[in-house]
Amino acid sequence: MSESVSVDALIARRKPGYSLEAPFYTSQSVFDLDLKAIFGRHWIYVAVEPEIPEPGDCVTVDIGRASVIILRDDDLQVRAFYNVCRHRGARLTPEGASSVGNLVCPYHQWTYGLDGKLLFTEHMGAEFDHSCHGLKPVHVRSVGGLIFVCLAKEAPTDIDALAAAIEPYILPHDLRNCKIAHSTDLVELGNWKLTMENNRECYHCVGNHPELTVPLFEYGFGFAPDSLDDNRRVHAERYDQLLAESHARWESMGLPSREIDRLTDITGFRTQRLPIDGSGESQTKDTRVASRKTLGNLPDRSLGGLSFWTQPNSWHHFMSDHIVTFSVLPLTPDRTLVRTRWLVHKDAVEGVDYNLQALTEVWTATNQQDADLVAIAQAGATSPAYEPGPYSPHTEGLVEKFCAWYIDRLSAHRGLHRDLSAGVEVAA
């Protein structure tokens, strides 16, 4: 059986409500397909505008085998280009942040403006047409200061719908007037889909995330009512009442808070503002703000946490005092980069307005705990005893939505028509 037929067969027999078959997590061929069909065709979250505040500031991100430069041009616009010199293909900038006047190839010094136009070459002759050799552009879109890129020739247009829906939620937090207080890169020893699946549920939180479950209510991520004892049932009912009261209070302040779930869109997303336990202020170990500089013109510290998830590779938490963003980038079938950024008000001073440890300790611990869980899930997927297991309908619904979205996007890429009612696929 050819590899192409094998992949199509895997897609066709995916059973809704169950985890994916092992090759989706272990196969190099499936991984290569993911880079092409998912990360090569969809909007991928890669950076925040505070990384490139001034003209000439740039950040370079690797997405699979592609390297992309995101920069601020002289007109303060955000642009993106493939990190490939048009001479002999050398990379112009290394991965990470830098600041440039122009983009100069380190190999033969071909020089490009911040608009991607080729400005200068030596020894190419009088008849050489510079206008035909500018940098190749990449689709780029800032949504409230979150920067997305798309490597496809034609990018999905529903990014407009995402922006229209989500910007009223996140703009009050004024991300563009923040700065990065801390950033980490963590390589998880698992497939990128296991990283995303782990993020999409909190079934595992109690017992695995002692720091995160201080500010977060476990009931905010689903539960089976018939599994609760009388005491926990009372707590769950109080949480539902708190959620309704909090949404009413926050929306009276002009802060949209209620759930939007469009995870099945091509550019899938979901958002909701959730209460925080304790003081209700921030995702910290004492549930109080880690920075005394409130973001934007927010009217209160006790604004819970606004969560924003996107398919296929990000999640974000917006609070009154800081923002945490997460970008997931596949490296190999069993290695995944999780890039986390903590942002505070641009005028906040470390040691005066905020304590870095208090700001970062919850998610630093949680990220490592999640990485450990992803590693044991990856190890299990390589076992001959592995077979897809059933999701909890109460606590793993968002995992199912992620996997269903993923399978549907592979199907669309490979020209298959998915019969969702039957859970099978046929050639289009």
Automatic annotation (TrEMBL):
<keyword id="KW-0408">Iron</keyword>
<protein>
    <submittedName>
        <fullName>Aromatic ring-hydroxylating dioxygenase subunit alpha</fullName>
    </submittedName>
</protein>
<dbReference type="InterPro" id="IPR036922">
    <property type="entry name" value="Rieske_2Fe-2S_sf"/>
</dbReference>
<dbReference type="Pfam" id="PF00355">
    <property type="entry name" value="Rieske"/>
</dbReference>
<dbReference type="InterPro" id="IPR017941">
    <property type="entry name" value="Rieske_2Fe-2S"/>
</dbReference>
<dbReference type="GO" id="GO:0051213">
    <property type="term" value="F:dioxygenase activity"/>
</dbReference>
<keyword id="KW-0479">Metal-binding</keyword>
<keyword id="KW-0223">Dioxygenase</keyword>
<dbReference type="InterPro" id="IPR001663">
    <property type="entry name" value="Rng_hydr_dOase-A"/>
</dbReference>
<feature type="domain" description="Rieske">
    <location>
        <begin position="43"/>
        <end position="149"/>
    </location>
</feature>
<dbReference type="InterPro" id="IPR015879">
    <property type="entry name" value="Ring_hydroxy_dOase_asu_C_dom"/>
</dbReference>
<keyword id="KW-0411">Iron-sulfur</keyword>
<dbReference type="GO" id="GO:0005506">
    <property type="term" value="F:iron ion binding"/>
</dbReference>
<keyword id="KW-0001">2Fe-2S</keyword>
<dbReference type="Pfam" id="PF00848">
    <property type="entry name" value="Ring_hydroxyl_A"/>
</dbReference>
<dbReference type="GO" id="GO:0051537">
    <property type="term" value="F:2 iron, 2 sulfur cluster binding"/>
</dbReference>
<keyword id="KW-0560">Oxidoreductase</keyword>
